[in-house]
Design goal:
It contains six helices and 15 strands. The protein has one domain. The N and C termini lie far apart (42 Å). The strands form six sheets. The protein has a five-stranded mixed β-sheet, with helices on both faces. By secondary structure, it is of the alpha/beta class.
Amino acid sequence: MISLVKAVVFLSLVQVCIGGGRGLTALVQQPPLVLTYHKGDLLHGALPVNIVWYGRFTAAQRSIVVDFLTSLNQRTKEKSPAVSSWWELTEEYSAKAGRPSTTNVLLGKQVIDEECSLGKSLKRTQIKDLAAKAVASNGITLVLTSKDVAVEGFCMSSCGLHDSAPLAKGLKEKFAYIWVGNSETQCPGQCAWPFHQPLYGPQTPPLVAPNGDVGVDGMIINIASLLAGTVTNPFGNGYFQGAATAPMEAASACPGMYGKNAYPGYAGDLLVDSASGASYNANGINGRQYLLPALWDPKTSSCFTLV
């Protein structure tokens, strides 16, 4: 059986349904959140990420994603705050567990399936089949579906997931995979917030997307969230809180937080590009700007943001 390590992303529902202002709970001292380490494997070292592009993506859209993945390891080469500084926090999980702590993302092979070989309405089980087209031993396969591809549960319960499967039939060794869908036309109010007005809650004006693409900039948020969850809980026995089938992980432990002073419905105090008016909190290669989610910091047991 496939180990179900589902990091289902309820970003919009958690972020905006609670209300638009600070409630009384903001005045109450909350106990620190703790993600428990369950003694399982963590991903570390050279970490190849292979991509399956399912459906039609433009060259510009692909470059946004590829530049983000490449930026994860460009230490000291980017303007501050840097994408690589955000990624370095995931290494603290391995260090705390007494494991090798360096995690270097390597861009692997890319498989393009523009004609949608399995159709444009996918079951969750078919995501695993697509991931198998680009298996990465000791790595991650990233399956990305285009805006006209429907996936079971997409928008209704999740914006993406991560899971694992055997490298080959009969083998115990597994590979990790992630799926994220482009929500531009299906549910941007759920999966592309804060670059689109939320489906629920206060209808605050959306932020300007840093790369000019609401769907793909929203995908970056979900890719980042699930990458962090995959590295720190790849096979369901790493760092998480709650049930293993629906765990609270590195990023999902800090929902809706992108900058300081964030609260439900407000992403936080972010950087704003003077030319484009776009909101962001991280710099990447090729002059890219990205909005990345807060991560739970195992040193402080609190949510960490770059700005």
